[in-house]
Every structure is written in structure tokens, then in C-alpha cells.
Amino acid sequence: MADYRPNAGIVVFNKQGKVLLCKRKGSANSWQFPQGGIDKNETPSEAAIRELKEETSLTGLDLVKTLDYGVRYDFPPEIATKLNYGGKHYAGQEMYWSLFYFDGDDTEINLNTDEPEFDAFRWTTLNEAYKLIINFKKESYLVVIKEFSDIVKNYNKK
């Protein structure tokens, strides 16, 4: 049986109901939601909070929901052979998605972190995000749209 890397996927939405999409550093047009590995003894929401801080410097957001199930996707072979996570290779990732509400200002987003993964960000709709992400992640993003669309549209902003 194939081994999948446990991963926290992070969807951040703002007052306008737009979601944060980040562009991978050094890539021409590789957009995605922030995400990162789940460490041993860490819950998916704890990993999401940690990864969000590491990748965007954002803290203090409202956690709205974390899915209680993972969504798997496979790496294409040409990508799988290049990826090495602590000496281990995986068939793909199992995403545990968390949704956060951001009531702040864009100036709080800092992509120039200790180990930058992104070099640009933008706010967009969930459907537009789906159109922009790489094909092998699309099925996982469909789950995000299904699970989070109504929440993003109807969130009772404090």
C-alpha cells in the first residue's frame, strides 16, 4: 500500500469572502493554498496554525473548521522522484483542511520568512482558486469548495 504524507491544508478567508492564494517561490504561475506537513503528536489544526505562521507570518486568526477526514492526492511521477521529506519518499499527500477567518490587513502578511516558500499572494474566490491550482491537486480542492463554500459566503463576521 502506498504511503501518503500527512499534510495540513490551509484556507484563509477575509471580510470580503475572498480566500488567500499564494504563488510558489521561483515558479512562473504555481498558485496554491498554504500547506505543510503534520508533525508527530500534532493535530491537523495545530499544524495548520504553525504552517500558516511559518509561511505567511499570520497569527491570531479565527479557526472556523477543520475537516475530520483526509483527502489524498498522488504526486505525478516526475515530481514524486524529486521530493524528499526527511529521507522519505511518498506517493502523495493526505490533506487535512482547516478554514480560518482573517479580519486583519494585508500588511500583516509577510512572505519573506526564514525559509520563504512563496513570493506573491492574492485574494480570490474559491472557484477561481480551483482554476489556478495545478491539476494533480484539483480533486483535493473540490473537497474544499464543497465543505467550505457556504461557510465562507455566510460567515457571521464578528
Features:
26% helix, three-stranded antiparallel beta sheet, 158 residues, alpha+beta
Model description:
This protein is an alpha+beta fold and 158 residues long. 26% of the residues lie in helices and 30% in strands. It contains four helices and eight strands, in the order E-E-E-E-H-E-E-H-E-E-H-H. The protein has helices spanning 44-56, 77-80, 126-132, 138-154; strands at 4-13, 19-24, 31-32, 35-37, 62-66, 71-74, 92-101, 118-124. The longest helix is centred in the C-terminal third of the chain and has 17 residues, at 138-154. The protein is globular and about 45 Å long. The mean pLDDT is 92.
Radius of gyration: 15 Å
- Share of helical residues: 25-40%
The helix tally amounts to 4
Q: Would you report the number of β strands?
A: 8
What amount of the residues lies in strands? 25-35%
- What's the overall geometry? globular
Unreliable stretches covering 5 or more consecutive residues: none
**Helix/strand-derived class?**
alpha+beta
The N- to C-terminal Cα distance equals: 46 Å
Mean pLDDT, to the nearest integer, reads 92
Please summarize the sheet with the most strands.
5 strands, mixed
List SSEs in N-to-C order. EEEEHEEHEEHH
Please describe the topology of this protein.
Blueprint: E1 4-13, E2 19-24, E3 31-32, E4 35-37, H1 44-56, E5 62-66, E6 71-74, H2 77-80, E7 92-101, E8 118-124, H3 126-132, H4 138-154
Parallel strand pairs: 1-7
Antiparallel strand pairs: 1-4, 2-3, 2-8, 5-7, 6-7
Helix pairs in contact: 3-4
